[in-house]
Every structure is written in C-alpha cells, then in structure tokens.
Structure prediction request, 57 residues.
Amino acid sequence: MAKLHLICGNCGCNDMWEWKHNPEFFDDDELIDDENVFLFCRNCATIHSLNDNAKKN
Ligand SMILES: [Zn+2]
Prediction:
C-alpha cells in the first residue's frame, strides 16, 4: 500500500489537515476561479491551494 506524507511548509505539522473544495471562488461577486482545492493546516491556520500542483483532469 502506497503511503503519502503531507507536511505543512509553514509549521512542519503533518497530522492536522482539513480538506476543502470550492467549485467556484468569488471575490466581490467576480468569478476568480471555477475550481479550488485547498488543504488547510489547523495547526498554523495556513491555507495551501492545490490548484497549481494538482490540476483537475
Ligand atoms: Zn501548518
């Protein structure tokens, strides 16, 4: 079985992840992006966007 380790680049925490998915992201009612996947580190409250690293097929 493959193992994946995720480590927060900000604080080094590796076990307090929360996954978020926003199909549409609006800023002042303007559509900025239509697909946003985030990993949220609950240890340091940093939001890591996966849009650049993991494109939707
Ligand atoms: Zn962190």
Observations:
- Strands lie at 17-22, 25-27, 30-33, 36-41, 46-49.
